[in-house]
Amino acid sequence: LISMPLFHGHVSSVPFASITNSVNNASFKSLLEGNVNSASVIMTSERIKEVAEFSKINPEIDFGIHLTVTSEWKFHKWDGVLDSKEIQSLINKNGNLYENKKGFTLNADRNELKKELQAQIDLAKSLGINISHIDSHEGALFYKSEFFKIYLDLAKENKLAVFVPDIVTVQFDK
Prior knowledge:
By secondary structure, this protein is an alpha/beta fold. It has six helices and six strands.
């Protein structure tokens, strides 16, 4: 377990690599120029293959999997990596991941959640992305202790570092 304090500057990361071509290009430029030292990748997005190709050409660059269980953006909607029928508790009536953490937290089944998160990690590996860590999109996996435990277990099972803001560790120390 690696606990990284929020906003202390020792890890600089590009969030949301893989969202659009322009975000990818800006992210790749920042990574190559050394302005940031890692990027978080949303595996459920359309442009993931661009990130995979970049990672293969630049294996020294760290990529985290931005484990995604919400789809909050107005014009960028996504569902899971798995077929929606396998993760029905994570999918809203429009066929997307829930728009907010409340919808996710109230509806998610722990078994479906673990399967989807592992599928996101497995997809990254299968595409050849150099995975250094996992983190949580919108911090959604930090709102319920059973989901937080799944998050930590996946890091351990996959031998990955895990981003846990200091502010989160306090609520689960009890």
